[in-house]
Design goal:
Helices cover 40% and strands 16% of the residues. The chain is of the alpha/beta class. A hairpin with a 2-residue loop joins strand 12 and strand 13. The chain binds 5-S-methyl-1-O-phosphono-5-thio-D-ribulose.
């Protein structure tokens, strides 16, 4: 079996007849199943059910999803094309509310298409695909760059705790938190990884363990509730996580359970780093209170591997994400560099367009 990272999202072919292909992440690690998206509705279902997941990867799927949705409008008048484009972008951007990257990528491709108001629908479709490809290329280069910035912080033989999955499957590039670890491994720093299983959907146990194992990096899976003991025993020197949305002051939304890890890391004097590209920042939100948190179906908690594990119909609290206050974050590693201390001025300075 190849040990190359799997490509979670890819576009095959030209704008008019090409196809959007996804790896079905719900089938991993048992099966590597590639799905061809045949409609906007199929793609929205795939994003909602986490067949494709991880903030940058759903951004990428959304960017190509705009092209997919507009293939049916290649013969429209420019006015009808623009109306259908707005409609498709609105649908896609709303499927998962927390990850900034989804709306960011979809709106970017939409805006590019709307700029071509006088072009034929076919020309606009080509322009949409070109912009989606730009999103993919920039995304890959941001991943490589933040991986290098992060790896430069690590020492040899560290134990690193991570949560959820922030690797190639979640980004379409080298990864964010796992990108740093893959880079450190390539540099010969011998990182040892502890992966929280990440209840209820087990992204850590299923996906992070799968990706690291394929890359030949030692990985140990633990129940989320074992993290405190891991830290108390001195088994980890650092926590690295990804992010779904970062407010202007650095408050960070990531997979549910991340906030608890940050509190534990502070108690145990362990550095806690967030790794995320600039497309994850939402500078219009002053702080984390404004971040929309997706609440998911309670059956994700009521069942394990299809078997009910609670009394029938029991009430469930199932937020998919939580918000870690900036004060608990040692640094945010993005493609522009390492932001520390984490505060509005350091964030705005780092993300300001180069003059
Ligand atoms: O619900 P998911 O699996 O999409 O959640 C993913 C995460 O929380 C990741 O940590 C985050 O998107 C960063 S991925 C680079």
């Amino acid at each position: 079996m190849s040990t190359l990272p799997l490509q979670p999202v890819r576009w095959e072919g030209d704008a008019s007849h090409g196809s959007l292909m996804l790896i079905d992440q719900t089938a991993l690690p048992a099966t590597v199943l590639t799905l061809r998206m045949d409609s906007l509705a199929a793609l929205c279902e795939a994003i909602a059910t986490l067949r494709v997941r991880g903030a940058p990867a759903i951004g990428l799927a959304g960017a190509y999803g705009v092209v997919l949705a507009m293939q049916a409008h290649a013969m429209d008048t420019p006015e009808c094309f623009a109306t259908a484009l707005r409609d498709a972008a609105n649908q896609l951007a709303a499927v998962r509310p927390t990850a900034r990257n989804l709306a960011w990528a979809v709106r970017r491709v939409e805006a590019h298409g709307l700029q071509c108001a006088t072009a034929s629908a076919l020309e606009s479709l080509n322009a949409l695909l070109a912009e989606a490809r730009n999103v993919e290329n920039e995304n890959a280069s941001m991943c490589s760059s933040m991986s290098r910035h992060g790896a430069a912080l690590l020492r040899a033989d560290e134990g690193i705790l991570t949560h959820c999955n922030a690797g190639p499957l979640a980004t379409g590039g080298q990864g964010s938190a796992l990108g740093v670890i893959l880079e450190a491994h390539a540099w010969g720093l011998r990182p040892r990884v502890y992966a929280d299983e990440t209840r209820p959907l087990l992204q850590g146990a299923r996906l992070t363990a799968f990706e690291l194992d394929r890359a030949g990096i030692p990985v140990t899976v633990l129940c989320d509730s074992a993290a405190a003991t891991l830290m108390a025993r001195g088994m980890v020197q650092r926590v690295l996580v990804g992010a779904d949305r970062i407010a202007a002051n650095g408050d960070t939304a990531n997979k549910i359970g991340t906030y608890a890890l940050a509190v534990l890391a502070r108690t145990h004097h362990i550095p806690f780093h967030v790794v995320a590209p600039s497309s994850t920042f939402d500078l219009e939100l002053a702080d984390g209170c404004g971040i929309p948190i997706e609440e998911r179906n309670g059956d994700e908690v009521r069942t394990i591997a299809g078997q009910r594990c609670t009394p029938e119909g029991i009430a469930v609290f199932n937020p998919a994400f939580d918000v870690t206050p900036a004060v608990l974050i040692t640094s945010i590693i993005c493609e522009r560099g390492v932001i520390t201390p984490v505060a509005e001025d350091t964030i705005r300075r780092t993300l300001a367009p180069a003059s």
